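Weekly structure sync, notes
Attendees: PL (lead), two postdocs, one rotation student
Agenda item 3: pending single-chain targets
PL asked that the sequence for the first pending target be pasted directly into the notes so everyone works from the same version. It is reproduced below exactly as submitted, 273 residues in total.
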Amino acid sequence: MPYGKLYIVSTPIGNLEDITLRAIRVLKEVDVIAAEDTRHSRKLLNHYGITKPMISYWSEKEKVRSEEMIEKLRSGLSIAIISDAGTPGISDPGAVLIKRAIDEGIDVVPIPGPSAAIAALSASGLSTEEFTFIGFLPPKTAQRQKRLNELALEPRTLIFYEALHRILDTLSDMKEIFAERNAVLAKEITKMHEEILRGTISEILDSLENRTIAGEYVIIVEGMKRENVQIDIALDEIRALMRKGKGRKEAVKIVAEAYGLSKKELYDKSLEG
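Predicted structure, written out during the meeting:
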């Protein structure tokens, strides 16, 4: 008997109308729907008159339930995997089952749909030519600041997700590390209380003083502009490369080319330290 197919179905991130006709058809045709939270997903399925057997695979059960679903797929059943919102496996559970299905040679079919990151980016006004999706930062302050420092020289637009109870702390860390870059804070995208704040990181922080912190957030920060790279930051990069075994000339060449700086100036400055 041929294996069944695993469909990765993107679902609305807020507004129930944001679902594709193909997603509705697939959810109606599969044998089983694997949902992050069956209680949450049932609202969507009921809205579109979809009645299919459901199985929960929320984070603590994901590994065990993945094996159960692989057995179903082996038996020829088709399964649609959905998360509470957006796309399974993208800052959501689902990656374990998807990887297992691929390892088993089972067909994995993406059914694309809404994305909070892309929706927020499209309305941000910041550069969309190149961007990096980071997702959720570490919850602990020291680890979060370490990750932000690692991203400080990234020239591409940065996209983050953040929980409401950490939004102020995260923005404060970004202000300290990224300084006065332009940023966007998108709240409750596609929902009734959708709001998009634009400005410098400091301006966004200030504007939150008179607002209720609630809902789900996307933070978008412009990348480090080459012309704004300070010599001391570049020198830190050179020292870091040298500690990893690079020669001085090679380290200077890498940093200078990456940020459009003078190799001679960087080399001379690196000798002073």
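Discussion points:
- The chain is about 40% helix and 20% strand.
- The mean pLDDT is 91.
Action: rotation student to compare against the earlier draft before next sync.
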